[in-house]
Amino acid sequence: MEDALKKIEKFAAEAHAGQKRKYTPEDYIVHPVRVMKLCKKYTNKLPILAAALLHDVLEDTSATKNQIKEFLIKLMDKQQADYTVQLVEEMTDVYVKEDFPQWNRKKRKTKEAERIQKTSADAQTIKYADMIDNCIEIVQYDRDFAKVFLNECRNILKKISKGDQELYKQAVETVDEGLLKLYGKTVNTH
Fold first, then answer.
1. Which of 92, 43, 34 shows the shortest CA–CA distance to 63?
2. I want to staple 23 with a disulfide (CB 3.0 to 4.6 A). Which of 29, 65, 88, 141 is the partner?
3. Residues 6+ away with beta carbon under 8 Å from 81
């Protein structure tokens, strides 16, 4: 499995080539790797770990679903490859500004939360890890936006509780701790 994950990480890194994290000079791939490592503390299922590494590829790169599937089929059986692609699709935002320019951020994020609520437990598990990693970085580097982002995460977490329960608790705690840092007091979050 480790060999397959290294190859998937390389594929994701190449897809995200030239992209940097918003607040640091790090290559973008550090985020999907951290998300995968966090998921790995709670599961050893290859499709979940692979999807964690690939979770932003459809949304943020020119790679297609078919390209991902063709690559994965060389590393895992067809059923695993299909499921990995399904998870990546479930993790890909649909209500983005480019496709819904008439909607403000709040409406897009509300629709996205409703969509995510219908995703699989495994996709929600990856989403928790994604939120945790993003929340930590945003609170550290952009306190103004963090107030918006953490409240969006809080609203999403109210709707998605099918995933790994330990990771869910960690996501809730991360959001709560971030809000505490921002506001200097406990905020009624749940």
1. 92
2. 141
3. 69, 72, 73, 75
Rounded to two decimals, what is the model's pTM? Answer: 0.93
pLDDT digits (tens, 9 = 90+) for 62-87: 999 999 999 999 999 999 999 999 99
- Per DSSP, the residues of 102-134 read TS-HHHHHHHHHHHHHTS-HHHHHHHHHHHHHH
The CATH superfamily of 1-92 is: Hypothetical protein af1432 (1.10.3210.10)
- Buried residues in 71-94 as b, exposed as e (16+ CB within 10 A): bbeebbeeebbebbbbbbbbbbbe
Domain boundaries, the chain: 1-92, 93-190
Which 3 state secondary structure label does DSSP give 24?
A: coil
- Span 136-184, pLDDT tens digits: 999 999 999 999 999 999 999 999 999 999 999 999 999 999 999 988 8
- Rounded to a whole number of angstroms, the distance between the first and last alpha carbons of the chain is 38
Instruction: Look at residue 27 and give its three-state secondary structure.
Output: strand
